[in-house]
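Sample intake sheet
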Amino acid sequence: MIAGLAHINLLVPPGTLPIATAFYSTTLGLTPRPVPAHRVHDLAWFEIGDSGQEVHIAPDYNGSNGNVKGEGGEEGGKAKWSSRHPCFRVGSPELLEELRVRIWWHFEQGGEAAPLEADRPGATASGMFFPCWLPVSRLYSLGSLFLILS
């Protein structure tokens, strides 16, 4: 069902994207690749060899790495969402729909390992807040998990 990893999105503290970019390109030797024009100041993408897999780096503007202040200004508040996520490749529209059904079933069943949010199969995929430059018909978002047709 899942054919591979398309990318992972890692978060860095705001203001440190140039440092992270230098580390991933110079130190680790990953190849930078273009990001959407409207995101050049807050995203960095890197190819992992010729595998078709990528590492995406973004600032943690929402404080999901734990640097969120609580209602009274104290440290350790909870972030509402995180843009950290893996994005897995799925081989066909049929397999994508089959996986959406399985994810929805688990969401409805609930439990400790159940997704916290999911789109109902057959409904328009929400796409959540990422990635706005992909056609929604090729994407399924689960908040912190993305599935994309390869």
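Comment: Strands lie at 2-12, 31-33, 44-47, 54-59, 85-90, 139-141, 146-149. Residues 83 and 130 are 8 Å apart (CA to CA).
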